Amino acid sequence: MSHIVDLPRRVVIGCAVLDEIARHIDELGLGKRLLIVSGSSATRKYANMVREILSDARFSVWNVEVKDANIDEVERLSSIAREIKAEVVIGVGGGKALDVAKAVAMKSGAKFVSVPTAPSHDGIVSPFASLKEGNRLISMKTVMPSLVIADIEIIAQAPRRLIIAGCGDLIGKFSAILDWRLAHKLKGEYYGEYAASLALLSAQHVLKYSSMYALKKIPMEALRALVEALISSGIAMGIAGSTRPASGSEHLFAHALDIVAGFPALHGEEVGVGTIMMLYLHGRNWRKVRKVLKRIGAPVSARELGVRDIDIIKALTIAHTIRPDRYTILGEKGLTWEAAERLARVTGVID
Ligand SMILES: [Zn+2]
């Protein structure tokens, strides 16, 4: 059986590296016709900066804003990309804009350039996009970015909550790896030790730097480590050829909670809480993860996520239905109401 590994061609991390974006696009020969896809709020100023830099370097540049990360939006922007014959789609933003931009790049046959403005999740490098289809969340395989420009100075301006959410998304790898190994043992699913180790390393990084993430002003060194860890996790997915190393039962819980409570919190915040509970099911050290999340100021309970206890229980009971093809510790039948309630109570998620 063959196995395809997609990797980014160039990853640039550092301070003020955005200024060099034109040179990198040129050196990689990605193209001259560029479509910038950005969010509509805080990230717009960065999209304008990118536009100015690239226009000055004599690229033909167009700007569009993402309204929502859904399939219809991808179709709308893909037709714009085709119309202007975009050779490169540049995603500038945190979550939504990058998810949509990579799908637009794939649909219009363009190269993808990722310019993350917040370290809130590991989609900044991965070829997988989380998109809404009706009220369902789907994971679409798109393209690996040809170029990633991670400007730490810009990322440092992101609200603290987004930074801590990125830590939560990475902590989820502890349970994701266990679920992947379980699926390998029970279902004969492909398992790649190297990709698994790489994803695990990114989670361990968060633990290592947790005292710094707990500080009011997070040091640059810790931010850089977070961005590198998010990139590693994305690359682990590229190596595995699936989101398996980065997404297990804790992600199923997070997606289920989004359905039950209508996207009540940030993705990484929900994943963190999910990880506490899934590690309990795996018989691992969930207390340690809970302690770290608490220490860095991430939510560890229903109240802190802004949901009712009943929402947590409901999400736990339907989590296994989110991606029936993805075997995890939740099994094929999922948790009963009683088991879900007990799980949430024992781990302190509900009281
Ligand atoms: Zn995630």
UniProtKB/TrEMBL annotation:
GO MF entry, a single one: glycerol-1-phosphate dehydrogenase [NAD(P)+] activity
Highest taxon of source: Archaea
Binding site for NAD(+): 95-99, 117-120, 126
Annotated EC: 1.1.1.261
Enzyme class: oxidoreductase
Broad class of where this protein is predominantly found: cytoplasm
Similarity comment: family membership: Belongs to the glycerol-1-phosphate dehydrogenase family.
Record-linked HAMAP family: G1P_dehydrogenase_A
Function: Catalyzes the NAD(P)H-dependent reduction of dihydroxyacetonephosphate (DHAP or glycerone phosphate) to glycerol 1-phosphate (G1P). The G1P thus generated is used as the glycerophosphate backbone of phospholipids in the cellular membranes of Archaea.
Protein name according to UniProt: Glycerol-1-phosphate dehydrogenase [NAD(P)+]
Species, as recorded: Ignisphaera aggregans
Gene it is expressed from: egsA
